């Protein structure tokens, strides 16, 4: 988390039907290097028109069901404010998907209507994904939001788009005190681990008698009872005005609940201290909070927490009088008055 610097050229919003063509382009460019896509659509380069036609149909169906799906996209100003990354979230697990068979009938005796796909692999993938969802996530019932699809155009990767899309879902889940679930591909697994998803187990997708197979992972992010953690920062005079200690404590959300067991995790608190000595005889008013933050280990919980916010450094948002007070309460990344 916080791995990517803020990119002001990117913006997150809900997709509309007007974005359909751009979303299809993201899917066509963003998924092919994922093993899942190669497994199901090995003939897409031979039949690119077929591939785009059915991708358009798939995302049209998502957009036409806003009561079940949220299609969230990232746009980029250096791409004419068009979509460069996409995510599809199932926000209403209990509602059935309303859509077509995307050109591959469930009955293998029926004729396929698309040429870019391997129909045997397509059906096996669909069946195993449904089975895995039931196996790993059915116990959560409607207390979950599920990430079905996540992709970024290759030219726009490493700019934090995928992370921002995931955080949208995590925030929504947190607001409703529900879990976040995903069936992760090898490409997505590392990202989800960085976002504190838990690996619940892996499963294979393989047609009997074939050597080719896919491995995917069922992953969950536990539900929490509040959206944001609260960070407290304070520093006080120790020994003399020229030797100060900063105490940094990070409190987790008040009640974190494990969606699988229903147990509640006790609030944990870690404190990191570092002492610095200023040999100059300048006024104590010249001390600023960022001086001490810079002395802290850059892997501390506070530094990681603050790095998640795409805003100006927190020390620039603190007034001089607040800095002299020496105590701050920071919620959702914004300072509140000391008490």
Summarize the structure in words.
The protein has helices at residues 20-30, 35-40, 48-63, 119-137, 161-175, 186-194, 289-295, 301-306, 320-325; strands spanning 10-14, 69-76, 82-90, 144-152, 179-184, 198-205, 214-221, 223-224, 230-238, 240-251, 256-257, 264-265, 269-277, 327-331, 334-336. Strands 1-2-3-4-5-7-6 form a seven-stranded mixed sheet, with helices on both faces. A five-stranded antiparallel sheet has the order 13-10-9-14-15. It has 339 residues and is an alpha+beta fold. Helix 1 (20-30) packs across helix 3. It is globular. It folds into two domains: 10-223, 3-Layer(aba) Sandwich (Aminopeptidase), CATH 3.40.630; 230-336, no CATH class. The chain contains nine helices and 15 strands. The model is unreliable at 226-339 (pLDDT under 50). The two termini are 30 Å apart. Strand 14 and strand 15 form a beta hairpin.
Helix/strand layout:
Elements: E1 10-14, H1 20-30, H2 35-40, H3 48-63, E2 69-76, E3 82-90, H4 119-137, E4 144-152, H5 161-175, E5 179-184, H6 186-194, E6 198-205, E7 214-221, E8 223-224, E9 230-238, E10 240-251, E11 256-257, E12 264-265, E13 269-277, H7 289-295, H8 301-306, H9 320-325, E14 327-331, E15 334-336
Parallel strand pairs: 4-5
Antiparallel strand pairs: 1-2, 2-3, 3-4, 5-7, 6-7, 8-11, 9-10, 9-14, 10-13, 11-12, 14-15
Helix pairs in contact: 1-3
């Amino acid at each position: 988390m916080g791995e990517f610097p803020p990119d002001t050229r990117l913006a997150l919003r809900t997709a509309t039907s007007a974005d359909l063509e751009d979303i299809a382009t993201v899917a066509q460019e963003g998924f092919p290097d994922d093993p899942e896509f190669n497994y199901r659509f090995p003939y897409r380069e031979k039949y690119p028109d077929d591939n785009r036609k059915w991708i358009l149909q798939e995302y049209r169906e998502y957009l036409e069901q806003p009561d079940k799906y949220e299609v969230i996209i990232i746009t980029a100003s250096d791409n004419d404010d068009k979509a460069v990354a996409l995510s599809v979230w199932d926000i209403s697990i209990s509602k059935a998907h309303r859509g077509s068979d995307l050109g591959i009938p469930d009955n293998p005796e029926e004729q396929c209507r698309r040429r870019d796909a391997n129909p045997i692999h397509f059906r096996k993938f669909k069946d195993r994904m449904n089975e895995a969802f039931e196996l790993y996530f059915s116990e959560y019932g409607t207390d979950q939001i599920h990430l079905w699809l996540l992709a970024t155009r290759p030219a726009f990767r490493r700019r934090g788009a995928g992370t921002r899309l995931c955080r949208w879902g995590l925030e929504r889940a947190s607001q409703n005190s529900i879990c976040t679930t995903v069936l992760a591909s090898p490409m997505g697994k590392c990202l989800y681990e960085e976002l504190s998803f838990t690996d619940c187990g892996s499963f294979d997708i393989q047609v009997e008698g074939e050597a080719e197979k896919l491995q995917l992972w069922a992953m969950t992010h536990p539900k929490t009872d509040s959206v944001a953690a609260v960070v407290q920062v304070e520093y006080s005079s120790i020994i003399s005005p020229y030797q100060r200690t900063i105490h940094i404590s990070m409190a987790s959300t008040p009640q974190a609940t494990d969606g699988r067991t229903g147990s509640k995790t006790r609030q944990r608190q870690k404190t990191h201290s570092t002492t610095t000595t200023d040999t100059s005889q300048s006024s104590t008013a010249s001390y600023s909070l960022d001086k001490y933050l810079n002395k802290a280990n850059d892997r501390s919980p506070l530094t990681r927490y603050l790095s998640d916010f795409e805003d100006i450094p927190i020390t620039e948002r603190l007034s001089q009088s607040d800095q002299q007070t020496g105590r701050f309460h920071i919620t959702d990344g914004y300072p509140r008055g000391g008490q």
